[in-house]
Sequence to fold (458 residues):
Amino acid sequence: MVDLDKIISLCKRRGFIFQGSEQYGGLQGTWDYGPLGVELKNNVKRAWWRKTVYERDDMEGVDTSVLLNRLVLKYSGHEETFSDPMVDCRKCKKRFRADQVDANEKCPEGDKHDLTEPRPFNLMFKTTYGPVADENNIAYLRPETAQGIFINFKNVLDSTNRKVPFGIAQIGKSYRNEITPRNFIFRVREFEQMEIEFFVKDGTDEEWHKKWIEERFNWYINLGIRPENLRKHVQTKEELAHYAKATTDILYRFFPEREEEAKQFDEVEGVANRGNFDLTCHTKGGKLVLADGREIPNVHATTKLTYFDHETNQHILPNVVEPSAGVDRATLAFLMDSYHEETVNDDQRIVLKLHPELAPIKVAVLPLKKNNEGIKKTAAKIKNELMKNGWRTVYDDTAGIGKLYRRQDEIGTPFCITVDFDTLENNTVTVRDRDTMAQERVAIDNLKDYLSEKLGNC
Fold:
């Protein structure tokens, strides 16, 4: 498997991902998606939305605000408990998350680190709104998209006439002031999430939890992730959030260079059975119950977030199953898993064998001779016609055909169409497959049907 260094190099070289604010020395924990990166990332999100929203009869979508009223995060528990333990090294003056540094690790200043006692560090980005910056105008950038869904449960329920079980899906940015962002786009301060809150009746939550674990695990496999690079990790009681009944993490092999196999895997998505904790926190007359048993009654909520169950003739607070995936981590996993190095005729070929649905560019149209007007015009016409079918198609005549093929291989383009002198004679083109490098002559009039069969849902 490829390591992160090669992926980082490829991403910079081919315009997938750049360091945030690089022009001014960068800003740690931020990354900018370039021309190919934004296409890949958007395709990951589209594939998720199609699978979880369009192909289901029990899902609605929302897009809620990044800025949240302070009370939302007070009653969700984030304001008081959303923190990581932080330590400082007295020698090198560096700051670490306590669970991510070994006290026996060598310090750059010599011998072992001299670490302070751990202390809590709240991960939320605090800001103020309005012209006066004071305690009354504090707001937060959301640390997760979930809370926007919970506080809109009743709005969605009433406006759509949904019945439990049903889900609300959202894709959006979240912000966490990570102590030590690292490992490229794996751990960052600004990131994007794909989250579902699936509302179910009490007593059915465990069954739905199992269904969603399998549904989400198979999504990665169906989009090309090799099964041996995925694992399921059932959280122990010690790992569980205090309110969760159960959580299973889907892990990907992000760090194949590590000697210990268990440490090669880390979370790409979590599927949690959250009970009715969240709606209880935010409902009118509800309360937040903290891990230490303290209770904070909700005296500010304006609406009861209940569902009227006609079977029992009661207003109930549904339980919630939450599949929560990171867009950036999923994108990184697809990049890593698709990366291959091969030797072809004594030359190295780098190829991203991305699932066609995820590939940034679906088809590249390449004129064999760029100074032949007939070939150029035909190639440009083919490119424009294919774009009308919704496939991201590019025209490229900036190098010889061999280099053009290698360039498209490296960015994951499934098919290259070469327009040559025979095209002008018999109206056929050469279609080259990225993965096999096999070439086939296809009539221009048949290209749409040919590619539709190969590209499927793209």
Q: What stands out?
A: The mean pLDDT is 94.
